[in-house]
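Deviations from the work plan: none for this task. Representative record:
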Amino acid sequence: MTDANADFVTIALMPSGRRGQVRRGTNLLEAARQLGVELESICAGRQTCGKCQVAVEAGQFPKHGLTSSADHLTPPDGREAKYQHEHMLAAGRRLACACEVTGDLLLLVPEESQARKQIIAKAATDRAIDVQPAVRQVYVEVEPATLEGHSGDWERLEQALAAQHGLRGLTPDALALAQLQPALAQGRHAVTVSVWQDREVLRLQPGYCEGAYGLAVDVGSTTIVAHLCDLRTGAVKATEASMNPQVRFGEDLMSRVSYVMMHPDGTEKMHRAVIATLNDLARKAAARAGISVDDVLDVVLVGNPVMHHLLLGLSPVELGGTPFALALSSALDLKARDLGLKLNGCARVHVLPCIAGHVGADNVAVQLAEAPQHQDDLMLIVDVGTNAEIVLGDRTQVLCCSSPTGPAFEGAQITHGQRAAPGAIERVRIDPVTLEPRFKIIGQAEWVEPGQAGAPSATGICGSGIIEVIVELFLAGVIDQAGRFSEAAAARSPRVRFPTRTGEYVLADGAQTASGAPIVVNQNDVRAIQLGKAALYAGVKLLLQARGVSAVDRIVLAGAFGSYIDPRYAMLLGLIPDCDLAKVTAVGNAAGDGARIALLNRAARLEAARLARAAVHVQTAVAANFQAEFVSALALPHASDPFPHLAGQLPEPAAGAAGGRRSQRRRAAPAQAA
Amino acid sequence: MSDDLTQIPTDELIQIIQDDLYDGLVDGVEAGTHELLRRGLTPYDVMTQALVGGMDIVGVDFRDGILFVPEVLMAAKAMKAGMEILRPLLAQTGAQQIGTMIVGTVKGDIHDIGKNLVAMMMEGAGFKVVNLGINCDADKFLAAYQEHQPEIVGLSALLTTTMPYMDVVIKRFKEEGLRDKVIFLVGGAPLNAAFAEEIEADAYCRDAAVAVETAKKLIAIKRGVK
């Protein structure tokens, strides 16, 4: 790409995923701004405040079509070198205001350098959970030692636990045992015992104490969310979220697996990085809740299979290719200290089970939260991500599969796509007659009216915005059922243009954007969304066929993305099958909720193990009819499936669609290359 | 195309067949093919002028983003219907194939829709295509080479984790002294031209239409050298 355009270089910025071309020699602070990424800068480019730090990720990034290298920035000048020296800047960090871009770059913008932090919509939702934790505290009064008696203090504690709480056969964690005599002495023979699964003593505190806490953590490939819960009341005391630090080793899952394939220490590095982040989240959550991390005694971890393996320090290499074999699929009970977690020294970790190479503990957690196995209604659960996980089930049977939707719904591979962050267009309405757009930007309360300039600046379009703009263009007749821009629409509005043989739609004028360049949706963007949604829909169809049904009773959209999609638009696009719209609900971070349920209810851990064993996993990619289903699902909303619940809302199919194209293509096709 | 074809001039009929092929109309392509043969055109001319000619337009429009996967598959189906009429006749006349390709998704990878599209477009361009399927190891490519003696070997991968296996296949061909006998075309979502260069493939093909163009170009160069 750069060969043809020697004056321009390609820059990608993580974690926002913003990507684009800037003129060679552009100041990096300015380049980031042009691409819609505002960096903190208090000194306005005088190499004084050090707020605009970025790090170059060197290497080949095929997904972004670039090869990044630290020497694609001008070397540090005197002022920057001075700042680096005086402030002991971390190795590899550069001050964006001090360098110019000379080649392609992938840059990591640390959280503290982002002028507008990312929105992470993963607050714990209110769910009724029966609180029956694996770790509980019991207060006992122990008979004092006597000269005549010859049993030890532990044995007398055992007797007291049996007599006063019916707890028998407990073993002490070695570290807890060391607390016994000091606690008995200080508490005058009264101690509070923290017991795990009525089997093991984790902590001994003098006298009567309250306060045992647990962490429920959903380790997503992009975002990690930790809920700190009071194990007695079940209350969420704090929720903390962070980017997954493994992003710097590879943005998507397969890139991370491939990093391990190429670097022998890759597993170890990514394991350490994620554990460090968990420790950081635990510390922050504890501080917010006003407790000590020493009071955290239990942890439940969920994640997709690659995250699961890296959490446990297991190589994910086998998950990189068929048959996608898991190192282990069953649930695990471990000591937190064995993973390097810095909580109470005796804290426990429970890792939920996985189902298959692409259906992990996060999906089991989603099932735990949504409980399809207890429903009479046939329920479809869709968790949209780079790899969509799909569950179909009711009381009689639960099926699941994964489908490679690709990163388009996260804004990647979309010309002006970006993640859901302030500045992103998230809602779109297009007047079906004038084709003028109204849109809503994340972080702005008011909708932006057609032609309105001045105030809010859009930086790109996020997943929900892309879905809405494509559906609105379809409803307005700008793109047809096949997803193609109509040449006739160009005559209706200057917003529809044909700069090449294919069309594009100008969603935001230059005056409405941060970069000053218009934000457009072009034919390739529509194609990328069609491919993603068809993969998801085809996965749903294979599950329906495996179950022998043709429709579902309710649909649950899980995951952060699911909470932002308007169900009607998801259906109009053909991302989800037909269903009563009143029965389509978004549930937010169901995986995090499932982790919380498993943290607070020990029976739920057994239920999770049962779910994982009983789930019928359907392998989509090798199914004989996957291709046919995929191809039919490329059309908007679908080539043949009916959508009775959208009756009257869909445009009439163009008359004589078959054969209607001949005249169009008669328009002389350009000569082929070569 | 239910109207009387016999009254239409040949040039115009070729145009109509190309249009029908573009629109994926199997009946139209079949009827037109029969009519051209009845008029005494050689099977080879019918193939190249009407069918391959039509598929070329489909390829260009697919490359440019005007047509999408479903339309291309429909067109390929119509093309195939025409070719089924011509193939026995071509065999009789001993007409030369444009070339032969073996194509497969490499070991570890089970994605095949994109690769199937390449196979269909290559067939549409007149190539003989042997589709080896998914999860193909180097031995499978080598065995297929020995059996079919192709000019072109197509390698596909959709995963970052499986694309390095392409390197393994090409290295195996080198070890067997067969590398220079074939043209390696590689493709798939995570690939790019730099990767193709690194593993010493002959070309990276962004999509099925580019694969066809590149195959034709490289075969012409190769034959020119000979």
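Chain B has a mean pLDDT of 93.
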